[in-house]
Amino acid sequence: MSTATTTQPVQVERGLFSKVKDNLELSRVDHFDVLKPLGMRLLGQCQVHLHSSDQGMSSVYLYGIPGLEGMADTLRDCSLRERARRRVLPVEQM
After folding, report:
1. Which residues of 11-28 are buried (b: 16+ CB within 10 A; e: fewer)?
2. Residues near 23 by Cβ (< 8 Å), separated by ≥ 6?
3. Domain ranges of the chain
4. What is the pTM of this model?
5. pLDDT digits (tens, 9 = 90+) for 53-87
C-alpha cells in the first residue's frame, strides 16, 4: 500500500467561456464532508465539500471527478500532514 503525499494546493477552475482558477492551500482545509445524493450514487459518483479557514474560499465543492471518494481520503491525509508540517492549529469560531 502506498502513501500519497503532496504539498500542492487544490486548484479549482470555474467558468465556461471565461475561466477563473483559484488555489486552496491544503494547510487551510479544516474539514471534509463526503456527500452521496441518490442520483450521484446511481452514477457511482459523490460530492466532496471542503471547509477552509481561507476567507476567499471558505467553502469549496468538488464533484464530477472519477474516483473522488478515494481522492477525498488522500486529500484528508495530505491536509493533516501539511497542517502538522506547518504547525497550523485550527481556530475555533464562536
Report:
1. eeeeeeeeeeeeebbbbb
2. 9, 10, 11, 12
3. 10-85
4. 0.76
5. 888 888 999 988 888 888 888 888 888 888 888 88
